[in-house]
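Self-study notes.
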Amino acid sequence: MKRADIDAFFAALREANPHPASELAYTSVFELLAAVLLSAQATDVSVNKATQRLFAVAPTPRKMLALGVTGIEEHIRTIGLFRNKAKNLHETCRILVERHGGRVPRAREHLEALPGVGRKTANVVLNVAFGEPTMAVDTHIFRVGNRTGLAPGKTPYDVEMKLVERVPEPYRVDAHHWLILHGRYVCQARRPLCWQCRVAPMCAFEPKTPAP
């Protein structure tokens, strides 16, 4: 994808959705971190249903820690891998309380040191909570980056680095949201909805999927 096409690509996404946002429900940086940690291999809808109950009783690291692993499990057992996620969330809360005064750190190295928090989760928190122009490459962004020719790469990190290099500065803070939503609702894995796609003219994918 050429530079002029990249500008047009993001201009079209911005026109369709000027103020994109995460579909995870949260009211604080801590709740965002917890929700993203729980969202691995789970849908945002399923996570939101669980965290609505969980955050009602434990909206802070200290209150979450007080629930214990078993207490956390009781609230999130509808989410896949809930036992492992409960252990990671509980341990993360312990570290937040003991090392960071109960606050979510802004430094990447501190975020990635938390159990269950990898590079993608750290990127989401840095972007959504702190407004940093990070690119959290999930399965949707990986697919869109490769399929469209915007940011081809063999690994999520390759795609992330290509996006950092190629996304024009005015679009960087919101690019992560636009690409996830585009992959989730339009550029879908099994059958991209090319006939509905605003960025099809800039996309390298061929042949375009015809309308049913």
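Second protein, same conventions, sequence then structure:
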Amino acid sequence: MTMREIEGVAGWTRLLGGFVILLGLLQGPAAALGSLRGEWGLAVAAVTVGGALLVQRALFASHSTKAITSLGLAAPRPRGVWAALAVCCLVLCAYPLFLLPTGAAFSTYPNALWLALGIFLQGGVAEEIVFRGYLYGHIRRRHSFWRAALISTVPFATAHLYMFTTMAWPIALAALVISVLLSFPFAWLYELGGRTIWAPAIAHAVVQGAVKLLVIDAPSFPLIWMAASVAALWLVFLIRPSADSRF
């Protein structure tokens, strides 16, 4: 084995080892606290972001400022944030388009506004710092966008296999496929935002949280919501990065 191959194996081992640690910091507290709708989003985000900074500093970064930047916690480019807000508005149109012809019952989950903040912190910031800021971000430094996005889906999908232990397998399989399909536009939003996590965090929080907090009493709506989310989010590929983006 050549030195380049040894360094490659060591680099992947270090990257995936850090990913496993961060995944535990993300999912462990959420499961222990029962934070299904962001009830403990602040705590989960604090543990995950703090852990990510420590892992990044210990394994890859030479100083704390570099760790913050390399994890995508710097100020975002407006293009990415506006793109995220636009596609979120588009996917939220699924609500009136479903309610008007069906007349289904609609309600909001108790304390929805407070929980929305928790979902943004947990499902948006915490998940995106693990999956885009850390995992995809490191792979992207060595590969083109599509190659990096595709490679990162392998550990990403593996991390979601736990759903088969908590859901009926058809539902778990559908959720896994949707998660993988959404990982590509989330990665593109990361790029549009100047390789920061804020744009995908916004979109991730809306896709994950709206259906939990804005409740439509119809068994078919969650499937419609997932399909609408994929269709709307993939439209971000119509938005090109700025001329000075690092492509």
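Instructor comment on the second fold: Residues 3-238 form one domain.
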